[in-house]
Every structure is written in C-alpha cells, then in structure tokens.
Amino acid sequence: MPTPSQKTPQRIATMIELHGGGASAREIAERLHLAHGTISEWLRDAGLEPNGGHGARKSRRRTRPDGVAAEMAEAASEVAAVSSAPLPRNREEALAHVQARLGMCAKLIEQQAVGLPTGASNPATLVKLGQWERELRAEIAELTPRSEVNPEADPSNVEAAAAVRTEIETLADAMERAAVCVHCGKNPFRM
Asked: Fewer CB near the terminus (10 Å): N or C of the chain?
C-alpha cells in the first residue's frame, strides 16, 4: 500500500506563513520535521524562492520577501488557504471551491508573467501553473450542471419527430392500400 503524501495543505500553509516571516528553508524544515531540500522544492513549486543564505543561521539577518516575491508569497498563501479549506459536501460548494482555486491560479500566472522578463520568475513554474489552470477548467466543466434541453427547441428532437411522422404516414398509407372489406372484398379507402 502506498504511503500518504507528506505534502498536505496544512503543511503548505504553515510553510508559506513561515516563509513570509523570513524563515529559511532549514528553519521551516525543522519546524515541520522534514528535509530542507523537500521544503526548498515545495517553495519552488509554490512559485517562491527559499529564504536563507550563507553563514551561521543565528547571525543572518531576516528579510521579508519584497516586490514580486512578496506578491507571489501572498498569492501562494491565498492558494494554500483555499486548498486547506474543508472539502465541499455538494456540487455547488465544490464548484465554488474550484472556481476560487482557478481565481488564485490566474493571479499566480499573472504575477509569474510579470516577473518573467526580469528573471524574477521561473518559466517552469509558469508552465506548471498553466497545467494546473487547464486541470481546474476541466473540473469546472465537469461540475457545472448541464442545462435542461427544451425538447421543442432541440433540433435533433425535431428531426427525429419528422422522421417518425414520415414513417407513420408511410405505414398508414400502405395499410390503407392493403385494406379490404370483409363483406365485399373492395378497398373502402379507394372508392
């Protein structure tokens, strides 16, 4: 049996919150009891660059992300909040949940696209976000209720009715031609 993923929405939300406060990947990893390489990878998946640097950890100056990095951190935080929300119980809640995630994804794509020319964004992250957006749009299409078809306005229904009407008329005409009176033996419809 496969082991469950360690990458839970709650851990991602905690990671993004700690990252926004200036914590390094190693500090976040210690807090979440994971490897710092894993945290660095998860941060990059969220479109963020790990904080940290060289030298002793205690003597490093903490800096909060600024510019595009701050916007990315905020958007990633919003996505994490939507992802860690309780699971929807019906189709309408599920549709609203996926639409909220699509809005967050669009915001992340927009922010990544702004940072792309300056090198502040990673093109691979933009590709992943594009794939995520397509998946969310497919989910929305599946969750969107189909409108009831009006049989009177449905062109395939009108064509089918015309075909049935023609078949009935053909059968009725054939029956009239073949009909014979029991008493005289003549066709009562052809007199």
From this structure: N
